Amino acid sequence: MNNVTIFDHPLVMHKLAILRNKETTGKQFRELVEELTMLMTFEAFKDMPTIKVLVETPLESTYQYMVDNKSVAIIPILRAGLGMVNGVQALFPTSRVGFIGLYRDKVTLNPCEYYCKLPDNITSGISVILDPMLATGGSAVAAIDLLKCNGAKRIKLMNIIASPVGIEKVHSIHPDVQIYCASVDRQLNDDGYILPGLGDAGDRLYGTK
Ligand code: PRP
Ligand code: URA
Known about the structure:
binds uracil; binds 1-O-pyrophosphono-5-O-phosphono-alpha-D-ribofuranose
């Protein structure tokens, strides 16, 4: 799976094990989602372009390299993707944030769009779509479709847990999009939930059913 980067760093695996545990509280769950996202962001943006700048140290001038924060567009898929935003913003404090509202129809599992607000910099910079769960792949494909229709060219997809069918679906339709995740789990159950997974990410983040 060339287009998938799996973060099997011991710290990522450790945090993911706690995240999956049904006894983990909402507060811990939110903190872990944020921490995992920050760890994954560090690696996922290692291909980011840098700009050469002249810096005056207290002793002399030196050429150094910096990134352009403003070229990053963070696009959480509502609701659960919201829990990942702070993890990316911690590293790119002046990035722009857009929102795509999607929910899965309970019977068909197809995504239904209810909101879309995207920043202008998607056309020139790097857009990173955030969603903790890539299950059937329907929501991710719909989000990528929306971004491309609005002019986005460089798109990354960041999930915490992905399923094999979800990855396959995204790559069959959008082979240019690199997927970053902490784990590829075994399979989906009959209700479209990832096994072993972590349950319903939105419900665990926000305490709803
Ligand atoms: C969950 C999850 C993804 C989607 C993944 O959202 O956060 O957006 O399901 O499933 P898919 O890959 O099969 O499309 P959900 O629709 O439950 O909405 P919520 O975040 O508002 O709970
Ligand atoms: N959405 C979730 O929140 N969890 C899953 O396992 C699948 C979709």
